[in-house]
């Protein structure tokens, strides 16, 4: 696969696809990635030929579920069985689908990493930010803490709205693609998580990494510098350099757009999972679905960030 660039050659397809056609396009992309990335020890593992659904088909279902804002696996499988039986004739039961998609979380991470590397190669600049992922309501958090003890309490944006769960940390390109992400307890510092993410991402063309005031400080800049990153954070209100303030803040509209789409389209700010692996597998599927959606938009000649209308 090639990176999404303005010069990408669109497919000879209508810009608006039916759900069935979109599922076929996603399957072809995922199957292509799967054959490139996944080693034979996984692809040809014992018993693979007896599976009713291939790994690529299970991942396609997982991506469709998250991209179509369906948090209920039972409801999603019922819908696929009722409306699209010809697409997945070997459709699994809900419980087997649940186990398979969690078992394939490592494969989905590998597919994301390959796709993210392609996006990173053409990035003009990068930005880091995070958003809350609520695992249970605060009033039921004592019960939720028993099933997911790694979750923690923290406040949402602007210090408001106490929530219980995690924060999804991302590194985003100027095109809106996610090239790295991490899930950390809600009370973990954003700068410490960003250090690990930036160490895993190649520098953008300009080398610039944008961040809000949560990422200010010499330590992050010093840690990121050896990897080719120059961290620039939002100037404080006392900063009189208006040009600098506009340069840092204006591009961050893209970051806010990405988080808005993840929350609106994939329900990324809440999860019904009841284990750490369950939360992580769903976050991986959501991020993979988002980046694949950008790729499909480019192939169809659509605006890259028109993700919601792609699944309408």
Our estimate of the beta-strand percent is 5-15%
Proportion in helices: 40-55%
Mean pLDDT: 87
- Pick out the low-confidence regions: 2-9
What general form does the structure show? globular
Alpha plus pi helix count: 13
Instruction: Name the helix and strand elements from N-terminus to C-terminus, one letter apiece.
Output: HHHHHHEHEEEHEHEHHHH
Q: How large is the radius of gyration?
A: 20 Å
State the total count of DSSP E strands. 6
Based on secondary structure, the structural category is: alpha/beta
Give the N-terminus to C-terminus distance in angstroms. 26 Å
- Give the biggest beta sheet: 6 strands, mixed
Task: Explain what you see.
The protein has about 300 residues and is α/β, with parallel strands linked by helices. The chain has a domain at about 130-275. Helix content is about 50%, strand content about 15%. The protein is built from 13 helices and six strands. The protein has helices at about 20-35, 40-45, 55-65, 75-85, 95-105, 105-120, 140-145, 190-200, 220-225, 240-250, 250-265, 275-300, 305-310; strands at about 125-135, 150-155, 160-175, 180-185, 210, 230-235. Strands 1, 2, 3, 4, 5 and 6 form a six-stranded mixed β-sheet that branches. Strand 5 (about 210), helix 9 (about 220-225) and strand 6 form a beta-alpha-beta unit. Helix 1 (about 20-35) packs across helix 3, helix 1 (about 20-35) crosses helix 6 and helix 3 crosses helix 12. The longest helix has 24 residues, at about 275-300. Mean pLDDT is about 85; it is low at about 1-10.
């Amino acid at each position: 696969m090639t990176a999404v660039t303005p010069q990408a050659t669109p497919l000879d397809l209508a810009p608006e696809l039916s759900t069935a056609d979109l599922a076929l396009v996603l399957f072809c992309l995922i199957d292509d990635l799967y054959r490139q990335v996944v080693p034979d020890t996984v692809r040809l593992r014992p018993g693979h030929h007896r599976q009713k659904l291939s790994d690529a088909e299970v991942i396609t279902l997982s991506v469709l579920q998250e991209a179509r804002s369906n948090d209920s696996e039972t409801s999603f499988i019922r819908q696929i069985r009722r409306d699209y039986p010809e697409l997945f004739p070997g459709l699994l039961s809900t419980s087997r689908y649940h186990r398979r998609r969690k078992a394939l979380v490592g494969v989905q991470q590998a597919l994301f990493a390959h796709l993210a590397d392609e996006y990173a190669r053409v990035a003009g600049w990068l930005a880091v930010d995070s958003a809350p992922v609520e695992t249970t309501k605060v009033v039921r958090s004592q019960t939720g803490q028993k099933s997911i003890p790694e979750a923690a309490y923290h406040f949402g944006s602007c210090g408001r709205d106490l929530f219980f769960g995690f924060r999804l940390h991302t590194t985003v390109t100027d095109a809106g693609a996610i090239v790295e992400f991490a899930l950390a307890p809600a009370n973990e510092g954003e700068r410490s998580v960003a250090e690990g993410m930036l160490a895993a991402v190649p520098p953008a063309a300009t080398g610039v990494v944008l961040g809000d005031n949560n990422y200010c400080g010499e330590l992050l800049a010093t840690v990121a510098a050896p990897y080719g990153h120059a961290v620039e954070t939002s100037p404080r209100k006392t900063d009189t350099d208006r040009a600098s303030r506009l340069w840092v803040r204006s591009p961050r509209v893209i970051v806010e757009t990405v988080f808005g789409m993840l929350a609106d389209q994939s329900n990324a700010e809440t999860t019904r999972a009841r284990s750490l692996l369950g939360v992580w597998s769903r976050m991986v599927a959501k991020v993979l679905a988002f980046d694949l959606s950008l790729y499909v938009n480019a192939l169809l000649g659509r605006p890259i960030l028109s993700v919601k209308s792609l699944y309408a």
